[in-house]
Fold:
Amino acid sequence: MQMTMRWYGTGHDTVTLEQIRQTAYVKGVITMLYDKMPGEVWELDEILALKKEVEDAGLYIAGIESVNVSDAIKTGSPERDKDIDAYIKSLENLGKADIHMVCYNFMPVFDWTRTELARKRADGTTVLAYTQKAVDAINPEDMFGSIAGDMNGTVMPGWEPERMAKVKELFELYKDIDSEKLFENLKYFLEAIMPVCDKYDINMAIHPDDPAWSVFGLPRIIINKENVLRMMNMVPNKHNGITFCTGSYGTSLKNNLPDMIRALKGRIHFAHLRNLKFNDGEADFEESAHLSSDGTFDMHAIVRALYDIGFDGPIRPDHGRMMWGEVAMPGYGLYDRALGAAYLCGLWEAVEKEAKR
Ligand code: CS2
Ligand code: MN
Structure:
């Protein structure tokens, strides 16, 4: 495995490459061209400049999160072929720059959904949280307003004001899209991009839908083992793989995370590890510290399963708590993600040494 941290780029992230390097635990970053809109080509010179910046800081690019997929591709509208051509061009340029892992998602309208970005815990840290009650009581536009006001002056990908200004139109676009249609459109997209992935050995890693159920009546498909196997089997190519995000699959307590990891062996190209604490059944959870005993998941069993399947891709601590007075993008402060990286490296070392004994 490679321990990594997400980095949004100079001018967008409150965390610097130097700080990431100084953690010592983290050697690689997961990054992106922040200003690219879905459907735009990632030019080779832009990718190479980003790569140079990361390498000059003593780190390397372990993968991209995310090359976002346009709504035309997700809904299968007539412009999708143009957007797919641009996507292929971007993958080609990433391949030429020797980058071989790309995370993306196929969620309609919203990327992840949380109802609070700064729920205060008893110890004064704040965390992202979700309650179904709050979702049921709010309409999507109001939800955007409350999330946008909570981003500590940053803009979180997927929640850009321009995008949310047209949230009604977006809902309109998806009105005839059900799960079956979404699967079909995903298949069409994957079949189109597999040749360039084969040529440059690029592992595509779809991020699960978060939370793992339908919100605001929109379909969600990447939510459990059965659906992921369906997605893999419909385009049977090892480059068609997944991001195993424990904080997203884990929102559904029906998902047995270590069991899923073992079942998806060979197709997990990226792992997001974080812990959740459930307060009131499935409908109310918050993002806890990574430590198993602070939340609901057995992080040791998760790391053990990844080790057992021979996982050698990037892992990143996913969201962290906001602590020690840090002001950063919610979930993406330095301090708690650094603690998470240290903890996960510790678990990995222990599992590895025990296994080799
Ligand atoms: C991330 C997602 O911050 C997060 O929750 O895991 O936003 C993820 O980057 C995207 O869904 C992947 O396209
Ligand atoms: Mn994730």
